[in-house]
Amino acid sequence: MAVKKLNDSLSLIDEVRKWGSFKQNGVSLRYMMEFGSKPTEKNLLISAQFLHKELPIRIARRGVELESLPYGLSDKPAILKVRDWYLESFRDLRSFPDIKDTNSVLEFTKMIQMIKVRHNNVVPMMALGVQQLKKGLDRKVDYEDLDEIHEFLDRFYMSRIGIRMLIGQHVALHDDPNPAPNCVGIIDTKMSPLEVARIASEDARFICLREYGSAPDVNIYGDPNFTFPYVSAHLQLMVFELVKNSLRAVQERVIDSDEVSDEGGGIRRSGLPKLFTFLYSTATNPLEEDSDLGNVRMTMAGYGYGLPISRLYARYFGGDLQVISMEGYGTDAYLHLSRLGDSQEPLP
To answer: 290-319, pLDDT tens digit by residue?
Structure first.
């Protein structure tokens, strides 16, 4: 029995490596929007058949990388858990039979939604693995300069954004035959950036109030009538992270003052190159204090992932995120989004 289990495990790894060498197929926001605007049975069948072939390739690529990370990162308990999630999801996808009718589309949709849920805690679990690596590194190693780790995490999280986007879009099209006006799956064809920024800012202020007992006001300016097609959940996440960082900077600068201004003191010049790395944070990492992921709640700071992941979300559909800081005064963030949505996914 033990030998059979070992053989099964070895054959799975071989299969993962084989699929990890296959070519990925990217899609654009415009294509997702046009294709999803008519969620007929035929289109849902085509979508399921595409994901049946595409998802194993994307998941296999990440599974292969998780096996061979530098500095012993692959051997950290948290990383091993993430690898197991990817291998399990790959096995589920490859063992699912060919999709030929509406019933198999239904079963496949349930299965990939389960995969999406299984991977919900990948980000904090990866962060925990990186923390485990940092604790074990030689003190002489400057972990902010570990380019191989940064590059891997960039690829890994960009891929994760794409996988969750494809699954989320298919599930939404399948589960909601009568979507809200202007909604095509999880795409809002007339998204108001002003409204999304307002909601994200209120969410960030709530977290700030919870942690500090007070929160600076956030002023939002813009054209309330301006809209464009985008995934509002992506923009909400990006604005939330930016406003959360700003609130924390302002709040901590004036914590002993009777006044609150809108300048957060900026970022030290030495800290600017580290802003978009995954191994840097100016705050205590909450995972060091509580590694039970079920109990880790949203905090003002600490993972060191907010800005780099926000930039990946911006780049996923052809945009970007830039930060310019004047030390001692304040920081400006510039979030560029692709309005037309013609950019193909940047497939790592």
So the answer is: 555 554 445 544 456 788 999 999 999 999
Per the listing, tokens 């949505």 go with 341
Tell me 345's DSSP state.
Answer: P
Tell me whether strands 228-230 and 187-191 are parallel, antiparallel or unpaired: antiparallel
Q: How far is residue 111's CA from residue 104's CA, in Å, rounded to a whole number?
A: 10
Q: What is the residue whose two structure tokens read 């193909």?
A: 344
Q: What is the distance between the terminal CA atoms of the chain, rounded to a whole angstrom?
A: 38
124 close to 296: Cβ distance less than 8 angstroms: yes
- Element (DSSP H or E) covering residue 336: strand 330-336
Residue 212: pLDDT band with limits 50, 70, 90: confident
Task: For residue 23, give the DSSP letter.
Answer: P
Burial (Cβ within 10 Å: 0-12, 13-18, ≥19) of residue 198: middle
Locate 26 and state its tokens: 């990217």
pLDDT tens-digit map of 23-73: 999 998 889 998 998 889 999 999 999 999 999 999 999 999 999 998 899
Q: Which residues contact 24 (CB under 8 A, 6 or more apart)?
A: 54, 57, 58, 61, 347
The model's confidence at residue 278, banded by pLDDT at 50, 70 and 90, is confident
Question: Which residue, among 166, 119, 104, 167, has the nearest Cα to 293 in the 3D structure?
Answer: 119
Helix axis angle for 41-67 and 102-118, nearest 10°, is 30
User: Nearest to residue 79, comparing CAs of 115, 114, 112, 123?
Assistant: 123
The region, left, alpha or beta by phi > 0 then psi within -120 to 50, assigned to residue 318 is: left
- Which residue blocks in 119-265 are alpha helix, DSSP H? 122-136, 147-175, 193-212, 232-253
- Taking CA atoms, 205 is separated from 201, 213, 214, 241, 306, in Å, by 6, 10, 8, 11, 16
- Token pair, residue 241, equals 């992270």
Three-class DSSP labels, 96-145: CCCCCCHHHHHHHHHHHHHHHHHCCCHHHHHHHHHHHHHHHCCCCCCHHH
